[in-house]
Design goal:
It is a single chain. This protein is α/β, with parallel strands linked by helices. It is built from 10 helices and 10 strands. Strand 5, helix 3 and strand 6 form a beta-alpha-beta unit. Helix 9 runs parallel beside helix 10. The two termini are about 20 Å apart. The protein binds ligand 7PJ. Ligand 7PJ binds next to strand 7.
């Protein structure tokens, strides 16, 4: 897939796979929770990811890890707003990872270029709100809710169910007035999926890419990599880079990662090999 992604005042070319750097402002995210909970630490981290070549920065104030406690909109905003203000001048489009229309509205007013919603704009009013802005949206698939999703995920055909869900949500966005060039889809690795489901989705990611929307893949440091490699989150860099490469080879156009520099290098090697073919 080529073309462009329109997100706010930015237009991102999709010839090369893009790297979205994760900026968590939470006390409890599974990998970097607590590390950047202080806004100035989060801003410094975001600046570093931008220097490493992040094409997008994804700022989140609510952990969606399995079993995570919900956060009220007011607290979520208190976490992310100082960070949005601190990184507005970096020149990198900012995505906000939230499921709440109240948070989306304020984030958009503060220049968010993308809304990354793990519930694919399920909340009442969310779709209309994003449609009425010029921001992009990342529509993610999740079975269940973060509190319950890993209890016993079941699918008849995980790829078909995820693809059909994403197609339906994208169609709803288009019907709501969003240009196709503002829509990104994401199978939601780890969100109501077993390791086997995650691997099947990665192996057959091309069947999601045929929808014609840029596919975002997020495997960075996730527990499936722990199950495969036997390593804790701090030691999953190599596994994370491997899955980013595989995802791009199978059609992903954006990878959501904690480690921007290493991922950019790996993708540069892949792109060079593809040019040599
Ligand atoms: C994802 C996400 C993902 C999208 C998280 C973590 C867990 N948003 N937010 N896709 N994962 N779109 O930081 O790994 O895979 S939270």
């Amino acid at each position: 897939m080529t073309g462009i992604l329109r997100c706010g005042r930015f237009e991102l070319a999709l010839e090369r796979a893009l790297v979205m750097g994760v900026v968590n402002v939470t006390p409890d995210s599974f990998y970097d929770g607590g590390r950047h909970f202080d806004p100035s630490a989060a801003v410094a981290h975001a600046r570093r990811l931008a220097e490493e070549g992040a094409d997008l920065l994804d700022v989140g104030g609510e952990s969606t890890r399995p079993g995570a406690a919900p956060v009220v909109a007011e607290d979520e905003l208190a976490r992310i707003l100082p960070v949005l203000e601190g990184i507005a001048g970096l020149g990198v489009p900012v995505s906000v990872d939230t499921t709440k229309p109240e948070v989306m509205r304020v984030a958009l007013a503060h220049g968010a270029a993308m809304i990354n919603d793990v519930t694919a704009l399920a909340a009442p009013g969310a779709l209309e709100l994003v449609a009425g802005s010029d921001a992009a949206v990342c529509l993610m698939h999740m079975q269940g809710s973060p509190r319950t999703m890993q209890a016993e995920p079941t699918y008849a055909d995980v790829v078909a169910e995820v693809r059909d869900f994403l197609a339906a949500r994208a169609a709803a966005c288009v019907a709501g007035g969003m240009a196709r060039s503002r829509i990104v889809v994401d199978p939601g690795f780890g969100f109501g999926k077993t390791v086997a489901h995650n691997l099947t989705l990665l192996a057959r990611l091309g069947e999601i890419a045929v929808l014609g929307f840029p596919v975002l893949a997020g495997w960075s440091r996730k527990s499936s990599l722990g199950r495969i490699t036997g390593r804790p989150a701090e030691e999953r860099l190599a596994g994370s880079v491997a899955t980013a490469l595989i995802a791009v080879q199978r059609g992903a156009r954006i990878v959501r990662v904690h480690d921007v520099a290493a991922t950019r290098d790996a993708l540069a090697v892949l792109a060079a090999v593809e040019r040599a073919q």
